[in-house]
Amino acid sequence: MLASGQLIVQYIERLAPKSIAMPDDKIGLHVGTLHKQVKKVMVALDVLEEVVDEAIAEGVDLIVAHHAVIFRPLKHLRTDLPAGKLYEKLLKHDIAVYTAHTNLDVAEGGINDWLAEEIGLTDVEVLDVLHTDPLKKLVVYVPVSHREAVFQAVASAGAGWIGNYSHCSFQLQGTGTFLPGEGTSPFIGEQGRIERVEEVRIETVLPASRQSAVIAAMKAAHPYEEVAYDIYPLDLPGKGLGIGRIGRLPQPMTLGELAGLVKERFSLTGLRVVGSLDDPVRKVAVVGGDGNSFVGKAASRGADVLITGDIYYHVAHDAMAAGLRLIDPGHNIEKVMKERLARYLRGLLEADGYETEVIASMVHTDPFQFV
């Protein structure tokens, strides 16, 4: 059984909802349609012509990219020019392109968390909180026979987290009543007769950004034709979401040693460093992509060093003046998302019994090299 394009996007937006993207970000479906069965998905950082050729050779139906394939408004679609030729290939081979950009940057468990993990940071927090994810409470009534299935489904979809504790809930058993009317097909009971069923009331919390995914998972696991559930807003602070991460190295090291570690972890041939290579560092901020606007935030949060790409000359001077060291490994370290997101999608597809294949693009898209 193959998954549809819509389902695959639902999985992506379960991790990185569109609602947490930066305003006016070019996310979502850029080319093609999601209304089709997908045999193979390819995860890519950039959609260049070489990447499209790779997708064609691999028999890919859907490319999931981090950087937008259509970033600026199109003035024309000329197939004798590079951009038009790329779009022509995508359309001729029925390859859809879906983009998850700043929503994947901001997402808990997204690109910036993956970068922090690769570097080995501990006690990781959001560097620059942009908004909080409001908390809600879900209450659902489940027959005793499906208590565990529904509970595990909503927990797997993102409900039930309080701090670092998962699967938090309150469950109470009682009697539920209902009378199936004309045209119904009840899981328990029969039309025209009041039924009394031993049910469990499950209460759990969920972040608002996960509500759609949690409700979908709950309904999929619930046996009833019509599920009885309630959603309540809570007057409690939600988790902060934003750009970048800040944490601590397990052990202090010099700036030069950390630069070497970054080169190794991200398979780089070179990078730029601002600061003395002998300086000791312990508290590290990381921002995937262009992090020029986060130098001040990293300094104010007490970071010893900021790891980010595309640092400008004068921004480097500002960092030096603020006592903040910089490591610029380039924008392309976001390539960590290729295998990480592919692994995430594989896990969900396999768990749900789909045979859709997911691969990571092998094309190197960094335009820069060190000589």
Question: Can you characterise this structure?
Answer:
29% of the residues lie in helices and 30% in strands. The chain is an alpha/beta fold and 371 residues long. The strands form four sheets. It has a six-stranded mixed sheet, sandwiched between helices. Helix 6 packs antiparallel against helix 7. The longest helix has 16 residues, at 336-351.
Short account of what is shown:
With 371 residues, the chain is α/β, with parallel strands linked by helices. It has helices spanning 5-15, 49-58, 82-92, 102-106, 111-119, 147-156, 211-221, 255-265, 295-300, 313-321, 336-351; strands at residues 3-4, 28-31, 37-38, 40-44, 62-65, 96-99, 122-133, 135-143, 170-178, 195-207, 229-233, 239-254, 272-274, 280-290, 305-309, 325-328, 357-360. The model has no long low-confidence stretch (mean pLDDT 95).
- Main β-sheet, spatial strand arrangement: 7-12-14-15-16-13
Order of helices and strands: EHEEEHEHEHHEEHEEHEEHEEHEHEHE
List the total number of helices: 11
Helix content bin: 25-40%
Largest sheet: 6 strands, mixed
- The counted number of beta strands is 17
What's the pLDDT, averaged over the residues? 95
Radius of gyration of CA atoms, rounded to a whole number? 24 Å
Low-confidence stretches: none
What is the percentage of strand-forming residues? 25-35%
First and last CA, distance: 49 Å
How would you sum up the global shape?
globular
The secondary structure category is: alpha/beta
Walk me through the topology.
Elements (H helix, E strand, L loop, with lengths): L2 E2 H11 L12 E4 L5 E2 L1 E5 L4 H10 L3 E4 L16 H11 L3 E4 L2 H5 L4 H9 L2 E12 L1 E9 L3 H10 L13 E9 L16 E13 L3 H11 L7 E5 L5 E16 H11 L6 E3 L5 E11 L4 H6 L4 E5 L3 H9 L3 E4 L7 H16 L5 E4 L11
Parallel strand pairs: 4-5, 4-17, 5-6, 14-15, 15-16
Antiparallel strand pairs: 1-3, 2-6, 7-12, 8-10, 8-11, 9-10, 12-14, 13-16
